[in-house]
Amino acid sequence: xxxxxxxxxxxxxxxxxxxxxxxxxxxxxxxxxxxxxxxxxxxxxxxxxxxxxxxxxxxxxxxxxxxxxxxxxxxxxxxxxxxxxxxxxxxxxxxxxxxxxxxxxxxxxxxxxxxxxxxxxxxxxxxxxxxxxxxxxxxxxxxxxxxxxxxxxxxxxxxxxxxxxxxxxxxxxxxxxxxxxxxxxxxxx
Length: 189
What we know:
Blueprint: E1 2-7, H1 14-31, E2 35-45, E3 48-57, E4 62-69, H2 72-89, H3 91-100, E5 106-115, E6 133-144, H4 146-156, E7 160-165, E8 170-176, E9 182-185
Parallel strand pairs: 1-2, 6-7
Antiparallel strand pairs: 2-3, 3-4, 5-6, 7-8, 8-9
Helix pairs in contact: 1-2
């Protein structure tokens, strides 16, 4: 597994990098077959350290975890525990998913935009209905079954996932509802 361990405006020493590789390697290899790479980012938010980990699996799915702590090692250890818990929870489905799929998940390119937040005032009306684009970037849309999409959304900890439905060859959306259930949008046509 390839590791990319970085720090945002903080130095990451060799001892921490070794600890990350050893601990995360054991946790991920225990529950996931053939992980391809891992990105671990450390940052500081006020008095706490933040650790964000993303592990890409050979099946094309991605698992993510994030943790905060006052010590940098504690932040990583908590993040690693969260990652291990996610992978343990989905171990059977990850293996079943890999057995059914001969090829990794297919990815399609798409544009992703970040829109500026509108400041609402009682008297001012917006000049136009066109939103202000703050950032534009490339993103990938995965070709998945509905079950795989729900699993990917939960592994990534995302509130919503846009995917290409393999069975209908169209764009679909799964999302976490306020009542805790998962919603699925399947446009007709």
